[in-house]
Amino acid sequence: MEKEVIDGVTMKRALTRITYEIIEQNAQLDDLVLVGIKTRGIYLAQRIAQRLTQLEGRQVPVGELDITLYRDDHHQPGPNDPEVHGVSLPVSIENRHVVLIDDVLFTGRTARAALDALLSQGRPQRISLAVLVDRGHRELPIRADFVGKNIPTSLDEQIKVAVMEHDGRDGIYIQKNS
Amino acid sequence: MTARYLVLETGQVFTGVAFGAAQAAVTGELVFTTGMTGYQESLTDPSFCGQLIMFTYPLIGNCGINRDDSEAIDPTCAGVVVREVARLASNWRQRQPLADFLRQKEIPGISEVDTRELTKLIRQAGTLKARLVDELPTPAQIEAISATPLARNQVAQVATTKAYPSPGKGYNIAVIDFGLKHSILRQLAARDCDVIVLPATTTAAELLALAPDGVLLSNGPGDPQDVPAALPLIRGIQGKIPLMGICLGHQLFALANGATTFKMKFGHRGGNHPVREIATGRIDFTSQNHGFAVDPASLAGTDLLVTHEELNDQTIEGLRHRRYPAFSVQFHPDATPGPHDATHLFDEFIEMITATKRA
C-alpha cells in the first residue's frame, strides 16, 4: 500500500529551499559543483542547478555518480555495501565545494560510498550532503547539511521519491513492506 | 440622501451621496483597490491608514460586516469611495450593514461616484490627494488640498505600543508590529507558533534578550523611510535569528541591507497580482497593498537576492539575504482579502527556523 506523504508542489518547494540554503552557505558560487547520486539524485541535482541559474544567472556544473546497492526494499543489515559503478564529473573537483545530492538519506552507506568515489577523484575543499528526504536509521556517522523533509519511518517502511523526469510525476510516497 | 463631494487636488469635483460618518472633512491619498471581494478586510487593514480607499468593484457592502474577518479592531482609513453601496446586506455571518459599521467607526463614505473614471485618472496621474467634504469647496479650499501634507508616521498611529503575547506550543516567534494585520497572527496560530507581538520601537538588544526562534516584520502603512528605528533593529538581529518580512517589513528589510525604496505611481492594491517565483518560474496570484517598492537598481552591491517579481510591471516582490536565513515578500502571503496561493511562505519560514536549528 502506497501513501503520498509529500505532494509534488511541496516537493518542488523543498528543492527551492535547499537551493536558497546552498546560496546562503556559498559566498562564491564559482567554486560550487553539484553531484547527483544515481537515478533520482541526478534529476534533483539538475533541478537545483536550474534554480541556481534562474536566480543567479550562472551555470553550476552537475556531475553524476552511479552507485548500485541492494534496493531499499531488500535492505538487510550486513556487509553488502553499495558499489560505485561510474563517476562522471564535468570539472575537476580539486579545491571546490561539492554538494552531493540524493533523494533519500537512510543508512548512510550510499553517501559513504559516494564520499569514497569523490575523494578518489581529487581533494575538494569541502563536501556537503543535500537530501530531499531524511528518513533516519543511520548506520554510519553521516548527516545531511541540507534536508528537504525529515520523514521519520520504521524499518519495515519504504520511502519512494518520484520525479517527473523518470517517474512521470513528482511526490514522496511511503509504503509498508508486507 | 445627503450630498457629499470628493474633491481632487487637480480641482475636479465628484458629487456623490454620503454614507457612513455623518460628517466628512478628511484629506488623504486617494488609492484604488481592485479586489472583487473582501472589503471588510481592506477597510480594516492598517496599511490603509490615512488613505481614502476607492473600490473598483462597483457594488460594495452586499454581505455586510461580520465578526470574523476584520484585520484590526478599528479601521484607520480616512474614507471610503464606492460606486454603489449595497442597501441590503445579506450573509449568514453578517452582523451589521457596511454603512452602519462606518457610521459607528466615524469613517465617512461616498457612493454614486464614477469610480471607473476616478481609477483612470489615478492610473494616468498617479495617486492623488483628495478631500471628502459635505459642502462644495471654494477655489481657495481646492487650492489648499494640494498644499496639505500627507500623513507621515502612520506606523505610530496603528502599531501597538505595548508587547502582548499570543501563546502557542510551537516555535517562539517575535512579530514586530508596524501595523499588523490579524491574519498574520492567524497564520502563525495555525502553525501553533508561540507569538509575542512587539512595538515597532523595539531595539535589537531587547529582541535578542527574548531569544525568539524567529522574527517576523509585519506589514504596515506609509513610507518605509518614516520608520528609521527599524533599520538598526533588523541589522542587529539578521544572521542571529531567522527573519521573515511582509510588505512594509519587506521594504524595511531592504533598506536595512542598503537598498532604497521609491513611491510607486499608483501602487498595487488588490487580490489579482501575479507574482513569479524566479527560481522555478511558478506564478502565484497574490494579495497586495503597497504604494512603495524596492528600487531594483539599488540592489547592486547589496547582499540581497531577488526571489519574486510582479509579472505585469516587474516590481520586486520578494528578496532573500545571500548570507543569512532571512527573506521578505512585498505581497501578503496571509492573503485576506485575496488568494491563498502564497500561504505556504509561512511554512517556509517555519522550515527555515528548523533548518537553522539543525545547522
Automatic annotation (TrEMBL), chain A:
<keyword id="KW-0805">Transcription regulation</keyword>
<dbReference type="InterPro" id="IPR000836">
    <property type="entry name" value="PRTase_dom"/>
</dbReference>
<keyword id="KW-0806">Transcription termination</keyword>
<dbReference type="GO" id="GO:0004845">
    <property type="term" value="F:uracil phosphoribosyltransferase activity"/>
</dbReference>
<dbReference type="InterPro" id="IPR029057">
    <property type="entry name" value="PRTase-like"/>
</dbReference>
<comment type="function">
    <text>Regulates transcriptional attenuation of the pyrimidine nucleotide (pyr) operon by binding in a uridine-dependent manner to specific sites on pyr mRNA. This disrupts an antiterminator hairpin in the RNA and favors formation of a downstream transcription terminator, leading to a reduced expression of downstream genes.</text>
</comment>
<keyword id="KW-0328">Glycosyltransferase</keyword>
<feature type="domain" description="Phosphoribosyltransferase">
    <location>
        <begin position="10"/>
        <end position="156"/>
    </location>
</feature>
<keyword id="KW-0804">Transcription</keyword>
<comment type="subunit">
    <text>Homodimer and homohexamer; in equilibrium.</text>
</comment>
<dbReference type="Pfam" id="PF00156">
    <property type="entry name" value="Pribosyltran"/>
</dbReference>
<comment type="function">
    <text>Also displays a weak uracil phosphoribosyltransferase activity which is not physiologically significant.</text>
</comment>
<keyword id="KW-0808">Transferase</keyword>
<dbReference type="InterPro" id="IPR023050">
    <property type="entry name" value="PyrR"/>
</dbReference>
<comment type="similarity">
    <text>Belongs to the purine/pyrimidine phosphoribosyltransferase family. PyrR subfamily.</text>
</comment>
<dbReference type="InterPro" id="IPR050137">
    <property type="entry name" value="PyrR_bifunctional"/>
</dbReference>
<protein>
    <recommendedName>
        <fullName>Bifunctional protein PyrR</fullName>
        <ecNumber>2.4.2.9</ecNumber>
    </recommendedName>
</protein>
<feature type="short sequence motif" description="PRPP-binding">
    <location>
        <begin position="98"/>
        <end position="110"/>
    </location>
</feature>
<keyword id="KW-0694">RNA-binding</keyword>
TrEMBL record, chain B:
<dbReference type="InterPro" id="IPR050472">
    <property type="entry name" value="Anth_synth/Amidotransfase"/>
</dbReference>
<keyword id="KW-0067">ATP-binding</keyword>
<dbReference type="Pfam" id="PF00117">
    <property type="entry name" value="GATase"/>
</dbReference>
<comment type="subunit">
    <text>Composed of two chains; the small (or glutamine) chain promotes the hydrolysis of glutamine to ammonia, which is used by the large (or ammonia) chain to synthesize carbamoyl phosphate. Tetramer of heterodimers (alpha,beta)4.</text>
</comment>
<feature type="binding site">
    <location>
        <position position="292"/>
    </location>
    <ligand>
        <name>L-glutamine</name>
    </ligand>
</feature>
<feature type="active site">
    <location>
        <position position="332"/>
    </location>
</feature>
<feature type="region of interest" description="CPSase">
    <location>
        <begin position="1"/>
        <end position="171"/>
    </location>
</feature>
<protein>
    <recommendedName>
        <fullName>Carbamoyl phosphate synthase small chain</fullName>
        <ecNumber>6.3.5.5</ecNumber>
    </recommendedName>
</protein>
<keyword id="KW-0315">Glutamine amidotransferase</keyword>
<feature type="binding site">
    <location>
        <position position="220"/>
    </location>
    <ligand>
        <name>L-glutamine</name>
    </ligand>
</feature>
<feature type="binding site">
    <location>
        <position position="291"/>
    </location>
    <ligand>
        <name>L-glutamine</name>
    </ligand>
</feature>
<comment type="similarity">
    <text>Belongs to the CarA family.</text>
</comment>
<dbReference type="Pfam" id="PF00988">
    <property type="entry name" value="CPSase_sm_chain"/>
</dbReference>
<feature type="active site">
    <location>
        <position position="334"/>
    </location>
</feature>
<keyword id="KW-0055">Arginine biosynthesis</keyword>
<feature type="binding site">
    <location>
        <position position="248"/>
    </location>
    <ligand>
        <name>L-glutamine</name>
    </ligand>
</feature>
<feature type="binding site">
    <location>
        <position position="289"/>
    </location>
    <ligand>
        <name>L-glutamine</name>
    </ligand>
</feature>
<keyword id="KW-0547">Nucleotide-binding</keyword>
<comment type="pathway">
    <text>Amino-acid biosynthesis; L-arginine biosynthesis; carbamoyl phosphate from bicarbonate: step 1/1.</text>
</comment>
<dbReference type="InterPro" id="IPR017926">
    <property type="entry name" value="GATASE"/>
</dbReference>
<dbReference type="InterPro" id="IPR035686">
    <property type="entry name" value="CPSase_GATase1"/>
</dbReference>
<feature type="active site" description="Nucleophile">
    <location>
        <position position="247"/>
    </location>
</feature>
